[in-house]
Amino acid sequence: MKDQEYLEVYGARVHNLKNIDVKIPREKLVVITGLSGSGKSSLAFDTIYAEGQRRYIETFSAYARQFLGGLERPDVDKIDGLSPVISIEQKTTNKSPRSTVGTITEIYDFLRLLFARAADAYSYNTNQKMVSYSDEQIKNLILKDFDGKKIAVLAPLIKSRKGHYRELFEQISKQGFIRVRVDGKIQEIEKGMKLDRYKMHDIEVVIDRLAINKSVEKRLEETIKTALYSGNNILMVIDVDDNDPRYFSRELMCPTTGIAYPNPEPNTFSFNSPKGACDGCNGLGITNEINLKKVIPDNTISIKNGGIAPLGDQKNSWIFKQIENIAERYKFKLTDAIRDIPKEALEIILNGGNESFEIESKTVGVRRNYKIDFEGIIAFIDSQYNNAESTSIKRWAKGFMDEVTCSSCNGKRLKTAALHFKITDKNISDLVQMDITELSNWFQNIEKDLSKKQLIIGSEILKEIRTRIQFLVDVGLDYLTLDRTSKSLSGGEAQRIRLATQIGSQLVGVLYILDEPSIGLHQRDNEKLIDSLVKLRDIGNSVLVVEHDQDMIEKADFVFDIGPGAGKYGGEIVSAGTFEELKKQKTLTADYITGRKKIEVPKTRREGNGKTIKLSGASGNNLKNVSVEFPLGKMICVTGVSGSGKSSLINGTLYPILNAHIYRGVKKPMPYKKIEGLEHVDKVIDIDQSPIGRTPRSNPATYTKTFDEVRSLFAKTSEAAIRGYKPGRFSFNVKGGRCETCQGGGVRVIEMNFLPDVQVECETCQGKRFNRETLEIRYKGKSISDILNMTIEDATDFFVKIPKIHRKLKTIKDVGLGYITLGQQSTTLSGGEAQRIKLAAELSKRDTGNTFYILDEPTTGLHFEDIRVLMNVLNELADKGNTVLIIEHNLDVVKLADYVIDIGMEGGKKGGKILVTGTPEEVSKHKKSYTAKFLKKLL
């Protein structure tokens, strides 16, 4: 039977899909497009992907499935021709500080393997190459090098450690050994022998003394065995005449100083394993150190008046009693300025101490004993940070600390030994600090520097590493380094890394479903991304992409357009066919692609209010000492290829400075020299890419805080006042007004042991979420449940007389979400809808006319038409005199800006410079800027 050519979906009804049938060609690049919220993700992820997942889990035994929890069958009649599915969504990657680009792409795992098997070890004392021998080799070396000499064979036990070692000597003599070598001198063990416990000592036990010739071979063998056993795989040989030691070891060892490394394993190089992680920072590369300037911010104040910040003003507490004792002992008063307190007293207050002393009481003439037993402020803050249960105490302690690079490993995360395994003079940490382009070159030319043995061991590993690095280059991430933490990646970067990892696995016959892979990608890198997807298709996979990007739609083999509107007005296939066929249709998407409809370029640009914010000397991440002006009262757009430093400049430097200035924010800005003009703005609103709370209990009304106002309104009705209902009565999250059968959820989950849980409408409240008494309270004839079921559009008219509610709802309607209901679960919102709910919540805050808005890629998940609607809202804000700063790649947004700041040239180390600033027209004339090249076509 010939493989089926289509993936066929019959009767899809998930979310807003209107019982549609779709035939998707297999082994092709297929794009699904349409307005935000029209049902693209419902078809791709909630129907096709969900069914693929469910079928996969069905293959497990019933016993295994009960632990996995079943997956719901999507609401669809049947799906034919479905391959195994892999989805690459925009869900942000792991936020753990231990997750890095290297670990996500698995390149680091291969590097660890390569270093464990093929690297040479060097001594961290002398930088000599480490050696290791077998027992047979040790015997032959001793016979050859010491022929005719008298030697002693010793086993090293203690190396440069303090202690008196009385028990050790007792133990040695019990084992039948008579002599030890202590600090270079051989002596006999005496009863009760002990050393100075405060000095460093080297101790070796003498296993045997013998003159070397052919006849002692058998005895030497035994001696070597015993010595290696006692000395933990190391032995030492001394020529009795000149007392010069030589070391031999079964493990890697430095021939002159005798330090040894355990044999390397892959986890010797893992900063997530206790075997490899630096002990100072547990493999994080940074530690928190207490900053004395934060503990004593001003040394002219006295302790009594709160000179020691963590303690505050003097209170009647145990700590202050102890400090009074210290003051008695060192003859100062708590009212003295801190700089006048004796050094040794301050030392005890900060670092602790304990001593007892007597003081004669002046009045009675009696001597009294005092005891100081004080751990010190610094130790106290440390212990609170490391051991406190509550996060607020931890945050308090962290306030007195600075994040500093770990001093033991210099931020390299690994133990010293691991950093002294090298391949052609580079250790593993040097490699992860190179950007991908450098790393790729290093691996291309490595063969000629490797020994024959290394080549045999490493050939397969090298092949794997090279292909994976190449895929990162292919998706436009050549500016990243492998040690970059995954939490510092933007949404688009994280998604493309997962894409590179997937392409790297080279699977065939799989259906890949991607959610807007072009997010956060500059037009220049778009071609690379499309090529990667075409490659995936060409090796025999089906690729299904949910996308709004015009380039992607043009390159697709087949395009589905879902519409005609969004939400309940969408959910139908309005056109299906090749790109050429799409252009002939009368759909919104076709109108924008053919240019029948377009976002108009404004005739004039705003002049602004003449004031500016001037930031000088920004040098965080890859920024090269950048100075830049932000003209106020305009719409500013920051552009540049991925990784050029846009987020470092705006989210990392400018926003924290503004936030600290206006709201006393705590986030530390990246390094900069100075900033001028902060007095011209009095409010800053930052809208980043983090997703809104996705729980079934969260909805647009609760997220935008509209519901709080609605509940207060209901509580003010006369009927509610008579019954004594407070706003809490109208919440479906607390006891009182909600239906207790379904706990305010409106649905009940029925657990089925071997089958997926089923959600059924609650039979007590019929899905209304509240109990009968609460629903009896009406406002203009509507109950609280009716309000939640209203669409935003209806609700905007309904609450027109209540300005607080009306303003919020109108903003949601203005960003194009008039069709969703107030009570729609956040889990059922699409990415673009959630993004706009978040925008609406922020944009509905009262603007002052001097507000500074910062938006990070607000067009995520938006169709051309949605962008037009959103830009109208942002234009209104700018027209009122506010400043709107947008970080964006989408040229439809860039061409509407009054002022463009282009950062480049490339990403990573080659980025971080301001290329050109000015109006879009001025920027488009720039010769080198990539943005200019693409912008020119639109103006």
Shape, principal axes of CA atoms:
globular
Major beta-sheet overview: 6 strands, mixed
Task: Indicate the low-confidence ranges by residue numbers.
Answer: none
Report strand order across the widest sheet: 5-20-21-3-22-23
Query: What percent strand?
Result: 15-25%
Number-wise, the strands total 34
| Average pLDDT rating | 90
Structural class: alpha/beta
Range of helix content: 25-40%
Radius of gyration: 36 Å
User: What's the helix count?
Assistant: 33
Query: What separation lies between the terminal Cα atoms?
Result: 54 Å
Task: Walk me through what this model shows.
The protein contains 33 helices and 34 strands. The protein is of the alpha/beta class and 939 residues long. It is globular and about 105 Å long. The mean pLDDT is 90.
Task: Name the features.
33 helices; alpha/beta; six-stranded mixed beta sheet
Short précis:
This protein is an alpha/beta fold and 939 residues long. It has 33 helices and 34 strands.
List the helices and strands and how they pair.
Blueprint: E1 6-12, E2 20-25, E3 29-34, H1 40-58, H2 62-68, E4 78-80, E5 85-88, H3 101-105, H4 107-118, E6 120-121, H5 135-145, E7 150-162, H6 166-174, E8 179-182, E9 185-188, E10 200-211, H7 217-230, E11 234-239, E12 245-249, E13 252-253, E14 260-261, E15 286-290, H8 292-295, H9 318-330, H10 343-351, E16 353-360, E17 367-374, H11 377-387, H12 391-398, E18 401-405, E19 421-422, H13 428-432, H14 436-444, H15 452-474, H16 491-504, E20 511-515, H17 523-538, E21 542-546, H18 550-555, E22 558-563, E23 572-577, H19 579-584, H20 588-594, E24 612-618, E25 626-631, E26 635-640, H21 646-663, E27 674-676, E28 683-687, H22 700-703, H23 706-715, H24 718-723, E29 747-750, E30 758-761, H25 772-775, H26 784-788, H27 792-798, H28 803-814, H29 831-843, E31 851-856, H30 864-879, E32 883-887, H31 891-894, E33 899-904, E34 913-918, H32 920-924, H33 930-936
Parallel strand pairs: 3-21, 3-22, 5-20, 20-21, 26-32, 26-33, 28-31, 31-32
Antiparallel strand pairs: 1-2, 1-4, 6-19, 7-10, 7-11, 8-9, 8-10, 11-12, 13-14, 15-18, 16-17, 22-23, 24-25, 24-27, 29-30, 33-34
Helix pairs in contact: 4-15, 5-7, 9-10, 11-12, 14-15, 15-16, 27-28, 28-29
